[in-house]
Amino acid sequence: MPSYSLRELAEIVGGEIIGDSSVTIDSVSGIREAEKGEITFIANPKYEVYLETTKASAVIADIDGNPATPILKVSNPYLAFLKVVTLFSESPFKKYPREIHQTAIIDDSADIGKEVSIGAYVVIGAGTVIGDKSTILPLVAICDDVKIGGECLIFPHVTIREHCEIGDRVIIHSGTVIGSDGFGYAKEGSAHHKIPQIGIVRIEDDVEIGANSAVDRATTGVTLIRSGSKIDNLVQVAHNVVIGENSILAAQVGISGSTELEKNVTLAGQAGLVGHIKIGEGAKVGAQGGVTKSIPPGMSVSGYPAREHGFAKKMYAATTRLPEILKEFRKLKARVEEIEKGLSSGSSAEDN
């Protein structure tokens, strides 16, 4: 692995050094685990307490002062740390041999690009095209007429169904299925008749999809994930969904059929969306948010059913007081009944 002086790293990430700029950095680590020769970072102020005890040789942070450990000061520590980690990470192109394993089963009509790595027991169907420098790790199944771009990384046990299209520099993690049948049935009496799913999945450039996720093929047309979007583990994307550019979907999100996300949408963990709605550009859905209708651009929502986040917080705060409010209500009810009883007794006496 290469080594860098803190001065060199500052030039790479565009930061300012507080302290000794000559220290040598040869690895990266978290602030609590870091040792001498490693650089770490602070993106959340609550970790600043570790500045006095960390053994790291330098810390990437947006702080001032003169701590004992040299600081590489930047306005976005997390992004700077990402750039530094990349310097010490081995690329898949170097890590995996540029060869086709002898146990791989590749149809004669498949078109395999230059410098492609294909691991053991990979199956590649007829008419499939794989772009230059892509890496297909062991036990991947790629069906007929699939198109995969260049410099992709596909981890073991991924399945890519027929006719699906994947762009350049796409990463797909283990256990994910691309192009499984959409969930579509027509009911006749008590019977459910399967609707043929004849569409495809198209994944554009620079998308990453986590482990054990599923992206269903369209009933007709295309299920589309646009460029730059990042999808976490255990996410379900149903048939004919459109995910806009640079959107983020956290773990266990579920999106029902024909829903459209515009660009830069964020769905936090376990958010669930009904079908046939639109989520506007830059909108955010909080963890476990249940979205039952379209959301306008830029709005943040949470709760079930999902409401504007500020209003949802007030509702949640109110519900925590329900036992207290109910107790007061019972007291008031008893008092009102007592007053009404007294009034009723008084009226009866006057009548006599």
If you consult CATH, what is the topology of the largest domain?
Answer: UDP N-Acetylglucosamine Acyltransferase, domain 1
Largest sheet data: 11 strands, mixed
CATH class of the largest domain: Mainly Beta
User: For the largest beta sheet, what order do the strands appear in spatially?
Assistant: 10-13-16-19-24-27-30-33-36-38-39
User: Percentage of helical residues?
Assistant: 10-25%
Low-confidence stretches: none
Strand portion: 25-35%
* Global mean pLDDT: 94
Oligomer: single chain
Write up this protein.
The structure is a single chain. The protein is an alpha/beta fold and 352 residues long. The chain has three domains: 4-89, Udp-n-acetylmuramoylalanyl-d-glutamate--2,6- Diaminopimelate Ligase, Chain: A, domain 1, CATH 3.40.1390.10; 97-311, UDP N-Acetylglucosamine Acyltransferase, domain 1, CATH 2.160.10; 321-352. 18% of the residues lie in helices and 27% in strands. It has five helices and 39 strands. It has an eleven-stranded mixed sheet, with helices on one face. Strands 8-11-14-17-20-25-28-31-34-37 form a ten-stranded parallel sheet, with no helix packed on it. A hairpin with a 4-residue loop joins β38 (300-302) and β39 (307-308). The longest helix has 30 residues, at 322-351. The model has no long low-confidence stretch (mean pLDDT 94).
